Amino acid sequence: MITENVKKLLAEVPEKNSFGEPVTVVAAVKTQHVSAINEAIAAGITEIGDNHVQEFRDKYADIMGEPRRHFIGHLQTNKIKYLIGRCDLYQSVDRYSLAEELSKRSGSAGVVSNVLLQINAGNEETKGGFSFEEAAGACEAIKKLPALNVQGLMAMLPFTDDEGLLRALALKMRALYDELNAKYGNFKYLSMGMSGDWRLCVECGSNMIRVGTTIFGRRITSPK
Ligand SMILES: *Cc1c(COP(=O)(O)O)cnc(C)c1O
Q1: How far away, in angstroms, is 212 Cα from ligand 1 center?
Q2: DSSP string spanning 144-206?
Q3: Rounded to an integer, what distance in angstroms lies between the CA atom of residue 61 and that of residue 36?
Q4: Closest listed residue to residue 89, CA positions, set 73, 105, 110, 65
Q5: Whose CA is nearest to atom 10 of ligand 1?
Q6: Is the CB of residue 194 below 6 angstroms from any atom belonging to ligand 1?
Q7: Considering the entire predicted model, what is its pTM?
Q8: Distances (CA, A) of 110 to 15, 59, 76, 85, 148
Q9: Could you say which DSSP state residue 20 is in?
Q10: 211 CB near ligand 1 (under 6 Å)
Q11: Ligand 1, from 52, 194, 200, 215: best to mutate by most atoms within 8 Å of Cβ?
Q12: Is 128 touching ligand 1 by the criterion CB < 6 Å?
Protein backbone atom coordinates (compact mmCIF):
# COMPACT_ATOMS: atom_id res chain seq x y z
CA MET A 1 0.00 0.00 0.00
CA ILE A 2 2.77 2.44 0.98
CA THR A 3 4.58 1.93 -2.31
CA GLU A 4 1.44 2.67 -4.28
CA ASN A 5 0.60 5.65 -2.09
CA VAL A 6 4.04 7.18 -2.63
CA LYS A 7 3.97 6.62 -6.38
CA LYS A 8 0.52 8.14 -6.62
CA LEU A 9 1.48 11.13 -4.50
CA LEU A 10 4.73 11.82 -6.35
CA ALA A 11 2.89 11.57 -9.67
CA GLU A 12 0.30 14.06 -8.49
CA VAL A 13 2.52 16.70 -6.88
CA PRO A 14 3.43 19.20 -9.59
CA GLU A 15 7.12 19.53 -10.30
CA LYS A 16 6.82 23.28 -9.83
CA ASN A 17 4.46 25.49 -7.86
CA SER A 18 2.72 28.57 -9.17
CA PHE A 19 5.95 30.57 -8.70
CA GLY A 20 7.98 28.17 -10.84
CA GLU A 21 9.80 26.76 -7.81
CA PRO A 22 10.39 23.01 -7.42
CA VAL A 23 8.10 21.37 -4.85
CA THR A 24 9.79 19.16 -2.24
CA VAL A 25 7.85 16.31 -0.64
CA VAL A 26 8.76 15.44 2.95
CA ALA A 27 7.28 12.25 4.41
CA ALA A 28 6.03 12.90 7.96
CA VAL A 29 7.09 9.68 9.66
CA LYS A 30 5.93 10.09 13.26
CA THR A 31 4.94 6.77 14.91
CA GLN A 32 5.82 4.81 11.75
CA HIS A 33 7.96 1.70 11.95
CA VAL A 34 11.34 1.67 10.25
CA SER A 35 10.08 -0.93 7.77
CA ALA A 36 7.28 1.38 6.64
CA ILE A 37 9.66 4.33 6.31
CA ASN A 38 12.11 2.25 4.30
CA GLU A 39 9.32 1.12 2.02
CA ALA A 40 8.40 4.75 1.37
CA ILE A 41 12.04 5.57 0.63
CA ALA A 42 12.36 2.62 -1.74
CA ALA A 43 9.29 3.95 -3.55
CA GLY A 44 10.85 7.36 -4.12
CA ILE A 45 10.71 9.44 -0.91
CA THR A 46 13.95 11.38 -0.45
CA GLU A 47 13.16 13.53 2.59
CA ILE A 48 11.69 12.48 5.93
CA GLY A 49 10.50 14.51 8.92
CA ASP A 50 10.19 13.39 12.53
CA ASN A 51 8.25 15.01 15.36
CA HIS A 52 9.88 13.34 18.33
CA VAL A 53 13.55 13.35 19.27
CA GLN A 54 13.30 9.87 20.75
CA GLU A 55 11.95 8.43 17.49
CA PHE A 56 14.48 10.36 15.43
CA ARG A 57 17.30 8.80 17.48
CA ASP A 58 15.90 5.28 17.73
CA LYS A 59 15.26 4.89 14.02
CA TYR A 60 18.24 6.88 12.77
CA ALA A 61 20.67 4.08 11.97
CA ASP A 62 18.11 1.68 10.49
CA ILE A 63 16.76 4.02 7.86
CA MET A 64 18.02 3.16 4.40
CA GLY A 65 18.91 5.25 1.40
CA GLU A 66 20.30 8.35 3.14
CA PRO A 67 17.23 10.58 2.94
CA ARG A 68 17.50 14.20 4.03
CA ARG A 69 16.30 14.36 7.65
CA HIS A 70 14.02 17.06 8.96
CA PHE A 71 12.73 17.81 12.41
CA ILE A 72 9.16 19.07 12.31
CA GLY A 73 7.84 18.81 15.88
CA HIS A 74 8.06 20.81 19.07
CA LEU A 75 11.69 20.76 20.15
CA GLN A 76 12.68 21.03 23.80
CA THR A 77 15.87 22.98 24.25
CA ASN A 78 17.49 20.24 26.36
CA LYS A 79 17.05 17.70 23.57
CA ILE A 80 18.80 19.66 20.81
CA LYS A 81 22.04 17.81 21.55
CA TYR A 82 20.63 14.58 20.16
CA LEU A 83 19.95 16.15 16.77
CA ILE A 84 23.05 18.27 16.19
CA GLY A 85 24.88 17.30 13.02
CA ARG A 86 22.23 14.73 12.08
CA CYS A 87 19.31 16.94 11.12
CA ASP A 88 19.41 18.58 7.67
CA LEU A 89 16.59 21.04 8.33
CA TYR A 90 15.02 22.14 11.61
CA GLN A 91 11.59 23.22 10.41
CA SER A 92 10.00 24.05 13.74
CA VAL A 93 12.02 26.89 15.23
CA ASP A 94 9.14 28.49 17.08
CA ARG A 95 10.85 30.72 19.66
CA TYR A 96 14.00 32.80 19.97
CA SER A 97 15.38 30.84 22.94
CA LEU A 98 15.35 27.67 20.83
CA ALA A 99 17.19 29.39 17.97
CA GLU A 100 19.77 30.78 20.38
CA GLU A 101 20.50 27.38 21.94
CA LEU A 102 20.51 25.67 18.56
CA SER A 103 23.09 28.16 17.30
CA LYS A 104 25.21 27.72 20.43
CA ARG A 105 25.21 23.94 20.20
CA SER A 106 25.80 23.98 16.44
CA GLY A 107 28.74 26.32 16.89
CA SER A 108 30.31 24.08 19.54
CA ALA A 109 29.94 21.10 17.23
CA GLY A 110 31.45 23.01 14.31
CA VAL A 111 28.34 22.83 12.13
CA VAL A 112 25.89 25.33 10.67
CA SER A 113 22.26 24.25 11.09
CA ASN A 114 19.57 25.00 8.51
CA VAL A 115 16.35 26.28 10.04
CA LEU A 116 12.87 27.43 9.12
CA LEU A 117 10.89 29.78 11.35
CA GLN A 118 7.55 28.34 12.34
CA ILE A 119 4.68 30.76 11.94
CA ASN A 120 1.42 30.29 13.82
CA ALA A 121 -0.64 31.29 10.80
CA GLY A 122 -4.03 30.64 12.34
CA ASN A 123 -3.11 32.27 15.66
CA GLU A 124 -4.06 29.06 17.44
CA GLU A 125 -3.40 28.68 21.14
CA THR A 126 -2.57 25.01 20.74
CA LYS A 127 0.18 25.67 18.19
CA GLY A 128 3.62 27.14 18.59
CA GLY A 129 5.31 29.63 16.35
CA PHE A 130 5.70 33.32 15.74
CA SER A 131 2.68 35.42 14.88
CA PHE A 132 2.60 37.29 11.57
CA GLU A 133 3.36 40.44 13.54
CA GLU A 134 6.38 38.93 15.32
CA ALA A 135 7.86 37.27 12.25
CA ALA A 136 10.03 40.09 10.86
CA GLY A 137 11.59 40.89 14.24
CA ALA A 138 12.24 37.21 14.92
CA CYS A 139 13.79 36.73 11.51
CA GLU A 140 16.06 39.73 11.91
CA ALA A 141 17.25 38.52 15.33
CA ILE A 142 17.68 34.87 14.37
CA LYS A 143 19.52 35.78 11.16
CA LYS A 144 22.22 37.27 13.36
CA LEU A 145 22.93 34.02 15.19
CA PRO A 146 26.27 32.76 13.88
CA ALA A 147 25.69 29.02 13.44
CA LEU A 148 22.24 29.10 11.87
CA ASN A 149 21.22 29.41 8.25
CA VAL A 150 17.62 30.67 7.98
CA GLN A 151 16.16 29.05 4.86
CA GLY A 152 12.53 30.10 5.08
CA LEU A 153 9.25 29.60 6.87
CA MET A 154 7.08 26.71 8.01
CA ALA A 155 3.39 26.81 8.86
CA MET A 156 0.62 24.46 9.84
CA LEU A 157 -2.72 25.83 8.80
CA PRO A 158 -5.75 25.30 11.07
CA PHE A 159 -7.87 22.17 10.67
CA THR A 160 -10.98 23.57 9.05
CA ASP A 161 -13.27 22.95 6.09
CA ASP A 162 -13.38 26.68 5.44
CA GLU A 163 -11.48 26.78 2.16
CA GLY A 164 -11.74 30.53 1.91
CA LEU A 165 -9.99 30.92 5.25
CA LEU A 166 -7.30 28.38 4.36
CA ARG A 167 -6.60 30.09 1.06
CA ALA A 168 -6.42 33.51 2.69
CA LEU A 169 -3.94 32.25 5.31
CA ALA A 170 -1.84 30.39 2.74
CA LEU A 171 -1.60 33.51 0.56
CA LYS A 172 -0.75 35.59 3.62
CA MET A 173 2.06 33.13 4.40
CA ARG A 174 3.39 33.42 0.86
CA ALA A 175 3.31 37.21 1.08
CA LEU A 176 5.22 37.09 4.37
CA TYR A 177 7.73 34.69 2.83
CA ASP A 178 8.33 37.02 -0.11
CA GLU A 179 8.59 40.06 2.14
CA LEU A 180 11.13 38.51 4.52
CA ASN A 181 13.05 36.94 1.65
CA ALA A 182 13.39 40.35 -0.01
CA LYS A 183 14.54 41.88 3.25
CA TYR A 184 16.81 39.19 4.67
CA GLY A 185 17.54 37.10 1.62
CA ASN A 186 18.51 33.57 0.76
CA PHE A 187 15.20 31.83 1.47
CA LYS A 188 14.60 28.47 -0.15
CA TYR A 189 11.58 26.91 1.49
CA LEU A 190 8.03 27.77 2.33
CA SER A 191 6.98 24.55 4.08
CA MET A 192 3.21 24.46 4.16
CA GLY A 193 0.69 21.75 3.36
CA MET A 194 -0.18 18.33 4.80
CA SER A 195 -2.33 15.43 3.56
CA GLY A 196 -5.57 17.40 3.68
CA ASP A 197 -4.48 20.75 2.30
CA TRP A 198 -1.28 20.39 0.26
CA ARG A 199 -2.92 21.03 -3.12
CA LEU A 200 -4.34 24.33 -1.96
CA CYS A 201 -1.02 25.24 -0.31
CA VAL A 202 1.03 24.52 -3.45
CA GLU A 203 -1.44 26.56 -5.50
CA CYS A 204 -0.88 29.45 -3.08
CA GLY A 205 2.91 29.26 -3.30
CA SER A 206 4.15 26.57 -0.92
CA ASN A 207 7.25 24.76 -2.22
CA MET A 208 7.59 22.10 0.48
CA ILE A 209 4.85 19.81 1.73
CA ARG A 210 4.86 17.45 4.72
CA VAL A 211 2.70 14.43 4.13
CA GLY A 212 1.97 11.57 6.53
CA THR A 213 -1.50 10.06 6.29
CA THR A 214 -1.61 9.99 2.48
CA ILE A 215 1.55 7.87 2.47
CA PHE A 216 1.21 5.69 5.55
CA GLY A 217 -2.52 5.62 6.18
CA ARG A 218 -4.14 6.73 9.40
CA ARG A 219 -1.87 6.63 12.43
CA ILE A 220 -2.99 3.87 14.77
CA THR A 221 -0.23 3.93 17.37
CA SER A 222 0.18 6.88 19.65
CA PRO A 223 3.53 8.67 19.74
CA LYS A 224 5.95 7.69 22.48
C1 LIG B 1 1.96 14.83 11.25
C2 LIG B 1 2.44 16.09 10.66
C3 LIG B 1 2.31 16.33 9.29
C4 LIG B 1 1.59 15.38 8.34
O5 LIG B 1 0.22 15.36 8.62
P6 LIG B 1 -0.77 14.44 7.75
O7 LIG B 1 -2.08 15.10 7.92
O8 LIG B 1 -0.72 13.08 8.38
O9 LIG B 1 -0.30 14.44 6.36
C10 LIG B 1 2.85 17.50 8.78
N11 LIG B 1 3.48 18.40 9.57
C12 LIG B 1 3.63 18.20 10.89
C13 LIG B 1 4.34 19.22 11.68
C14 LIG B 1 3.11 17.05 11.47
O15 LIG B 1 3.24 16.88 12.79
Answers
A1: 6
A2: TSTTEEEEEEEE-----S-HHHHHHHHHHHHHHHHHHHHHH----EEEE--TTTHHHHHHTT-
A3: 15
A4: 73
A5: 210
A6: yes
A7: 0.96
A8: 35, 24, 21, 9, 11
A9: S
A10: yes
A11: 194
A12: no
Q: What letter represents residue 167's amino acid?
A: R
- The 10s digit of each residue's pLDDT in 102-124 is 999 999 999 999 999 999 999 99
Q: Cα of 108 to ligand 1 centre, how many Å?
A: 31
Does the beta carbon of 26 lie inside 6 Å of ligand 1? no
Residue ranges, the chain, pLDDT below 50: 224
* Closest atom of ligand 1 relative to the 213 alpha carbon: 8
Q: Specify the CATH superfamily of domain 16-28+77-214.
A: Alanine racemase (3.20.20.10)
* 185 vs 199: CA distance, rounded Å: 26
SS3 of residue 213 by DSSP:
helix
pLDDT of 219: 75
Instruction: Say how far apart CA 72 and CA 30 lie, in whole Å.
Output: 10
Q: What is the pLDDT of residue 17?
A: 96
- Written as one string, the DSSP assignment of 72-114 is -S---GGGGGGTTTT-SEEEEE-SHHHHHHHHHHHHHHT--EE
